[in-house]
Amino acid sequence: MSAYLALALSVGVLAVLDTWLFVSPLATTALAGLVWISFIAWGCHFHSGGGTKGTATTLACMSFGAVVGMAAVMAAGGPLAALGGLAAPVAVGVGAAVICLASAVSILSTIPASVYGFASIAGPILLQDRSPTEALFPVIGAIVIGAAFGYLSETFANAMTKKGAAAE
After folding, report:
1. For residue 156, which phi and psi values (nearest 5 degrees)?
2. Residue 165's pLDDT is what?
């Protein structure tokens, strides 16, 4: 089977499973509604080079970004609150700068992956009315699931490609 078709089949089948997890067994947990974060992490796995490196980068950077995002939201409502309408923009700017500075650390060097985590934490805070600390672990949980699905989809696609190449 061609690599193109193998990946499409692997991703398609696993996308059904990933979505089902979030709308059925996880629907009554803190992970409810966070399937979109799982898909971001899944894509981040490939964006970060795939394989174990892509998975490690996704887990480290997106989780770090989520922590920085949580801190930014807390700062906007705390020490920066006196800035009024500028509190959130300043907090986001400081958070973005922290992500860029942290990229000097090897495992955090993929800035876009950290930004994905930074942005992902806003969803449960703004859409589900969770506190920043209540949102953090569910976001990281969805990141872990998505990174795992990225790794699995790549592994399954590679296995199907190798079988097809050996048969030909």
Report:
1. -65, -40
2. 47
Enter the pTM of the model: 0.93
Which whole-number Å values give the CA distances from 118 to 19, 65, 71, 113, in the listed order? 22, 4, 10, 9
pLDDT, the chain, mean: 95
Q: How far apart are CA 27 and CA 29, in angstroms?
A: 6
Closest CA to 152 of 34, 48, 54, 24: 54
CA–CA distance, 52 with 71 (Å, rounded to integer): 28
For the chain, how many residues are written? 168
The one-letter code for the residue type at 112 is P
**Contact 121/136 with Cβ under 8 angstroms?**
yes
Question: What confidence tier does 120 reach under pLDDT thresholds 50, 70, 90?
Answer: very high
- Between helix 111-120 and helix 51-77 the angle, nearest 10°, is 50
Three-class DSSP category at 121 = coil
SS3 at position 74: helix
Q: Which helix (H) or strand (E) holds 106?
A: none
CA distance 124 to 30: 10
* 64 Cβ contact partners less than 8 Å away, ≥ 6 residues apart: 99, 102, 108, 114, 117
Per-residue exposure over 88-119, b if at least 16 CB sit within 10 Å of its own CB, e if not: beebbebbbebbeebbeeeebebbebbbbbbb
